[in-house]
């Protein structure tokens, strides 16, 4: 690999690492903030006379979930840019593909191909196949957002009575 390709690979890898790390830290921050909101809602609902206020506070959870979901979508786009660059560099390597698959040391290309093969296999149930980070994060965003919305409806209805 010539010097320029090595520099480009290092640049693409650094870009990938920064955004992949940012994604995990952002998701962890979301979980902390969502937990704090849940704790505040429970405390307000339990310790005050104004249960409807707790319901209104719980609306922060679906709002927060949506904002972090959109932020995650943006970060995924940035990660995919780095992955595309790494795949391009891997295609220019001298490593020969094996048995119709990218060489195992072409990590980004090999992972993409093996994931597609696994997805193509018939799996009886959706929970048997591995989920991507995006699918897992989306499920958490939807679950916590929906829980916040249902809590708001429930608490406001109790508070109005």
What does this structure look like?
With 161 residues, the protein is mainly α. The chain has one domain. The protein contains five helices and no strands. The radius of gyration is 22 Å and the shape is elongated. The termini are far apart.
Rg over CA atoms: 22 Å
Number of helices: 5
Structural class: mainly alpha
Give start-end ranges of low-pLDDT stretches. Answer: none
Number of domains: 1
The amount of beta strand, in percent, is under 5%
Q: What number is the mean pLDDT?
A: 91
Give, in order, the helices and strands.
HHHHH
**Biggest sheet statistics:** none
Main attributes of the structure:
161 residues; mainly alpha; 79% helix; single chain
Task: Lay out the secondary structure.
Elements: H1 3-47, H2 51-58, H3 60-91, H4 107-120, H5 133-160
Helix pairs in contact: 1-2, 1-3, 1-5, 2-5, 3-5
